[in-house]
Amino acid sequence: MKFILLTGSALLLAQLLFALLGVMVIAGGEEDQSLSERRSEDFTFTGNKNITVHGIIWFPSDGASQGSITALVGGDGPSGKADGDFNPLINALLDRGIAVASWDKPGIGASGGNWLDQSMSDRADETRSAIRELRERFEDFSISAIGFSQAGWVLPRLSIEDGLDYLVLVGPAVNWQDQSDYFGTIRMWIEGKSPAEIEEALIRDRANDDVIFNAPTFPSNLAGDLTEDRWAFIKRNRHEDSTVFIANLTIPTLAMWGEDDLNVDAMNDVEIYRKFLTVSPRQVVLIPEATHALLKSTYNYQQFDQWPEEKQEEWYNEGRSAYAEGALDLMADWVLQEAKAHSDDSWSYKSSKSKSTKSFKSKSTKSSKSMKSPKGKRSKSSKSDSAKSPKASSSQSTKSSKSMKSPKSNKSSKSENDKAMESAWSYKSPKLSKSTKSSKSMKSPKGKRSKSSKSKSTKSSKSDAAKSPKE
Q: Residue 367 CA to chain centroid, in angstroms?
């Protein structure tokens, strides 16, 4: 065996190469689960009812900043700035030069108040206050918000005037009651119930929910662990529908769903966004083999307490690699493209789209020729008391599949630039992790399907409306 002795500049070059390889090896995996080595600083702002909300800002490595900061807006549940669930995502964004801000919901950590006292409008106001504080600190930065699930009823309420330059929505919900139906449908399907049993249960649960949540005071005779605070939260928000806010959005928006989402009816919500989202630039994407949180479908469970210990350990060890292929790159590329637009008035979305985004789209989307509308029936949505879509009620956006039009039918009304800025969508039955399946033979329900909400923290004995999305 021959050995080569390196000296002088050759040795120095080799040492630098090995050091670089070392960094590449440790990037991701378990290293993604910690933010302790990242530079950070605390910040506070005044939220609803003059409470003080506490947050934290993480910064990219020295010299790596791209002049962009994003605020994370979580889904349902008592989430805090240091939960750890988003650490792999945060590390991935920091490695791309994007600073990240997060805060404790009211009543969590050092923040005052109670997050269960909030409406979706309150959550939007809280986000506006956070963005205002970030704008004062980083007036020359491009500022964005990345919202998850329930944030689909929050972030579309914001506008350019609120100081936001762009939005990223991950698994955004559209109609609360439809989503509740969808969550219940999938849950019962996993349990092995027949389509007839599922439809009967949905009808019964809707009637029960109307009685429970239309009551003037908290029903003291309820079974299960639904608390009075949770009951009030659901009663306050259960008629949410974001269609009108989507139609009126003025912030450049990337909306992303996992194709195998078990919590949100991704295919249906993609269609709503494609129909009503008109802001430019925009991008609507259905990511293949991805969950509600855009993880790989091997992690597909409706609630965290369903995760086996081995899956939790696998997720921990994978870090950012647990996300579906291309999902984090697409998110970061969008953020950085919009940061460039913010600093260059002559910037063109179409001409500056990154190669990684184009590559991702070519892998993940089907041509309009191969797209078909789903054959199964879908339940009609409940009309929202608080929001009606322009020129149509909210129920028109969630018709049964027989009357739904595929994107192909809208082809003549879209310009070439529109088509370049939107991803095609496709649909198939969601993939489940093996451990979530019932021992019974399972088939995709052919009866009515609809959407849902989930809660990690509180369950009602029968009411699926008590479950709203967190992530």
A: 25
**pLDDT tens digits, residue range 175-208?**
999 999 999 999 999 999 999 999 999 999 999 9
**Coil, strand or helix: which one is 101?**
strand
Tokens 């709203």, located at residue: 468
Whole-angstrom distance, CA of residue 144 vs CA of residue 69: 6
Residue 434: DSSP 8-state = G
* Residue 310: its H or E element: helix 309-318
pLDDT tens digits, one per residue of 54-97:
999 999 998 788 999 999 999 999 988 877 889 999 999 999 99
Partners of residue 99 on adjacent β-strands: 69
Cα gap 40→466, rounded to integer Å? 36
Query: Are 461 and 224 spatial neighbours (Cβ–Cβ below 8 Å)?
Result: yes
Residue (of 94, 116, 77) closest to 35 by Cα position = 94
- The residue among 353, 330, 329, 331 whose CA lies nearest residue 340 is 353
Q: Which residue has the tokens 């070439």?
A: 416
In 28-119, where does DSSP find H-type helix? 87-95
Residues 6+ apart with CB under 8 A from 292: 149, 171, 258, 261, 262, 263, 264, 469, 471
Nearest to 338 by CA among 319, 310, 357: 357
Q: Are 241 and 387 in contact (CB under 8 A)?
A: yes
Collect all residues with Cβ–Cβ distance below 8 Å to 3 and sequence separation of at least 6. Answer: none
**Cα→Cα distances 70→97, 143, 147, 336, 402, Å:** 11, 6, 10, 11, 40
Closest CA to 241 of 83, 393, 127, 411: 393
The owner of tokens 């339940």 is 379
| β-strand pairing of 98-103 with 68-73 | parallel
Tokens linked to 162: 């609120």
Task: Write the secondary structure of 380-415 as one string of H (helix), E (strand) and C (coil).
Answer: CCCCCCCCCCCCCCHHHHHCCCCCCCCHHHHHHHCC
DSSP 3-state of 435: helix
Residue 297, classed as helix, strand or coil, is helix
What gap in Å lies between CA 372 and CA 333, rounded to an integer? 29
Structure tokens at 11: 């040795």
DSSP state for residue 118 in the 8-state scheme: -
CB-side exposure of 339: number of CA atoms within 13 Å? 23
